[in-house]
Design brief:
By secondary structure, the chain is α+β, with helices and mostly antiparallel strands. It has three helices and ten strands; from the N terminus they run αααββββββββββ. It has a seven-stranded antiparallel beta sheet with strand order 1-2-3-8-5-6-10. Strands 7-4-9 form a three-stranded antiparallel beta sheet, with no helix packed on it. A hairpin with a 2-residue loop joins strand 1 and strand 2. Helix 1 crosses helix 3.
Length: about 160
């Protein structure tokens, strides 16, 4: 049976690529999608491991308001890594150092903050209420430096995510 170590090993190439990306770069999601296509071998393996983990409950082992979530790693190559299994809204938060998201459709025709499955990137100091509509998704959140603040929308904050 797969476990967290298997998932982290499968994510090594992606984590290496994330280290060189600026979340404020409008092309970051497209760069990731070109290097790691959803149907390619790396992300096919990651998708399978995430699905197995959610189903076996070693991933997304906690739940709040119908959203299942869990910490995969507190610090791996300069990122904290969290996983969620969701439909509907989560909790509003700010990304002081940005956020890189990898979204996998589970059922229906889900959209994460209006974007289909794949990569979604939020720049530094952006804010949003993460929301999946139209189905269910498994999402991996890569947070540079683990920086995240759960809070109401600050004055002047933007919430634009860029996807591939």
């Amino acid at each position: 049976m797969a476990n967290t170590d298997d998932l982290l090993k499968a994510l090594e190439p992606l984590l290496g690529a994330l280290q060189g990306l600026d979340p404020d770069d409008a092309q970051a999601a497209k760069t990731l999608a070109a290097r790691f296509p959803l149907s390619g071998p790396e992300l096919s393996l990651v998708r399978r491991l995430v699905r197995e983990g959610v189903e076996a409950k070693w991933l997304c082992e906690r739940e709040n308001g119908g959203v299942r979530f869990g910490r995969v790693a507190k610090d791996v190559k300069g990122f904290s890594l969290d996983a969620v299994h969701m439909q509907g809204p989560g909790a509003g938060h700010t990304h002081p150092q940005g956020e890189f998201d990898l979204c996998f459709a589970v059922s229906g025709a889900p959209r994460f903050d209006g974007q289909g499955e794949g990569f979604v990137v939020y720049g530094k100091n952006t804010w949003h209420v993460p929301t999946v509509e139209g189905g269910v998704m498994d999402i991996l959140y890569f947070l540079p430096g683990g920086a995240l603040r759960f809070e109401p929308k600050p004055a002047g904050a933007t919430g634009v995510g860029l996807n591939a």
